[in-house]
């Protein structure tokens, strides 16, 4: 399946600014993107990174098999517009005015959209989403967001503003699309804020880039109080 | 399956104190407990509330079928000790010194432990956990916690202090128990902090008590900025 991975190349992860310098945020954002691409390819699918600015595939330092399955497109429109431009449309035979013809049995190819900061994504979690049979399947994020979805219905369109999970449920209802919600902690965990970095260190997989980069920057788990946080070794924190 | 639900009856949900009065915190904690009990019973299992202080079943206002399947025990020990006292032990024939006999093929009944603040728990999510075949199955919470687990191995014991998810993985390894991690957003979401209340309003099920109580207190979704928050109507906020 074609999997669109939107990526904000120019101002990555601004809400991590209290924990990371701009250069570090860029490094971590690219490492998470590389981990997401690896999970998608390992699940047997072909990712297209839709980047807000030119992005060299070489700069992601992907292994050769992952790089060979990955393509990059540049689109500086809003997230909503860039995604909608890539969702399934009704197949037509080329004649004008026949988009609503009775040839609609030829279902369009489904398209998945997976955010680039789902650092905990695994092939198993993605496969639960990508194999859902509903017209629209959504993996919600915390706070009512939409972290990943699969669209098989030609009339469904996204709107990422606000409580997008609830909005997407309503949009599916309006166009008569069946909907399934995928209950996944890994897909619900987008890495936005410093507290989220804990999840990368706890749940990162063998070979993942993001936990490796964070550890190189001096981050480690800190379990002194109730919910576990992160600590940074002092000699690194002033960089 | 027997499902232990630890409940802190005396000081419920202190980390919600910036959003809720003590009386409101108690109301919301009991509503979440009632919702968790309903999900467990609807999944076909029998919950035992292990409360730190006497708790009247009547005060939870459960429907009669849920009340009939629920029992309450009082145990004022620490969470770790109260849970460990209820985990499976090796069956013996009563003769001293034979706990390690070759009669170990009689596997003990499994025991599940589900936290009382998993307000998003559904029968489906619980069943994914409870039907896992591993010796120990864990649904991690955010921040490296253990929100729910099933124990089928007679030597496994819990330790809820610190990064308990990682500690429990290590304890399972030490006793030779197989381990499975359950990837569930619903089970990963314990309601600890004001931001977590958003999840109750977004993902609560038809008939759930906790979202109903929060709405009665004036809380509603507020999507004005990026990640959705909650707002409280002003006439209620000063109670």
From TrEMBL, chains A, B:
Q: Does the keyword GTP-binding apply?
A: yes
Q: Which InterPro entries match?
A: CofC, Nucleotide-diphossugar_trans
Cite the SUPFAM superfamilies for this sequence: Nucleotide-diphospho-sugar transferases
Catalytic activity reported: (2S)-2-phospholactate + GTP + H(+) = (2S)-lactyl-2-diphospho-5'-guanosine + diphosphate
Q: Where is the composition biased (Acidic residues)?
A: 92-103
Enumerate the residue ranges of region (Disordered).
88-108
Per its UniProt entry, what is the enzyme's top EC class, as one word?
transferase
Mind listing the UniProt keywords for this protein, alphabetically? Answer: GTP-binding, Nucleotide-binding, Nucleotidyltransferase, Transferase
Q: Which EC number(s) does the record attach to this protein?
A: 2.7.7.68
GO BP annotations of the record are: F420-0 metabolic process
Gene Ontology MF annotations? GTP binding; phospholactate guanylyltransferase activity
Q: Which domain of life is it from?
A: Archaea
Q: What is a single Pfam family found in this protein's UniProt entry? A: CofC
Q: In which pathway does it act?
A: Cofactor biosynthesis; coenzyme F420 biosynthesis
Task: Report the sequence similarity comment from the record.
Answer: Belongs to the CofC family.
Q: How is the subunit organization of this protein annotated in UniProt?
A: Homodimer.
Q: What does this protein do?
A: Guanylyltransferase that catalyzes the activation of (2S)-2-phospholactate (2-PL) as (2S)-lactyl-2-diphospho-5'-guanosine, via the condensation of 2-PL with GTP. It is involved in the biosynthesis of coenzyme F420, a hydride carrier cofactor.
* Name of this chain's protein: 2-phospho-L-lactate guanylyltransferase
Q: Which organism is it from?
A: Natrinema versiforme JCM 10478
Protein encoded by which gene: cofC
